[in-house]
Amino acid sequence: MITVLQHPIITEKASNIGHLRQYVFAVETDANKVQIKNAIESMFEVNVVSVRTVRVKGKSKVRMTKKGVTRGRTNLKKKAYITLKEGQTLDVVTGEGSDE
After folding, report:
1. Which CA distances in Å does 74 have to 24, 25, 54, 67, 77?
2. 59-79, pLDDT tens digit by residue?
3. Quick one: which of 8, 34, 18, 27 has its CA closest to 88?
4. Phi, psi angle pair for 37, to nearest 5°
5. Alpha-carbon distance 33 to 96, whole Å?
6. Which of 22, 23, 29, 86 has the most CB atoms around it within 10 Å of its CB?
7. Please, are residues 36 and 90 in contact by the beta-carbon 8 Å criterion?
8. What CATH number does residue 78 fall under?
C-alpha cells in the first residue's frame, strides 16, 4: 500500500499551498484516490479530507546522435494533491505528521 507513494514534490508552487494544509506527492500512475488516501493516513498518521489527482503527459524529446536524430518521450507522471484535516500539518522533509 505504501508503494503507492513515490516521493513528495517540493517546488515553489507546492510550498505556497502548504498554508492551506495541502501537500503534493508523486504517485504510481495506476493508483486511485482511495489507495492514495489510505497510504497517506497509514504512513503519516494524519486524517486526509480530500485527494485530487493530476496526470502529467510526458514530453517529446529530440536529440542528435552519431546515427542521426533520435526521438522519444518521457514517461507519464501522476501527482496527488492531499488536503489534511483542520489543525493537522505534515513535514514532508522529515516525513512526520502532527496535530497543532
Report:
1. 21, 19, 16, 21, 9
2. 999 999 999 999 999 999 999
3. 18
4. -60, -45
5. 21
6. 23
7. no
8. 3.30.70.330
Which residue in the block uniquely carries the three cell numbers 514532508? 92
Please give the C-alpha separations between residue 21 and each of 50, 64, 68, in angstroms, as whole numbers: 11, 45, 49
Distance CA 100, CA 86 (A): 9
Q: pLDDT at position 90, please?
A: 85
Looking at the structure of the chain, the number of domains it has is 1
Query: Counting every residue, how long is the chain?
Result: 100
CA 29-33-35 angle, 5° bins: 80
Task: Check residue 94 and give its pLDDT.
Answer: 61
**For residue range 17-47, what is the model confidence (pLDDT) as tens digits?**
988 999 999 999 999 999 999 999 999 899 9
DSSP at 57: P
Nearest to 20 by CA among 100, 98, 99, 85: 85
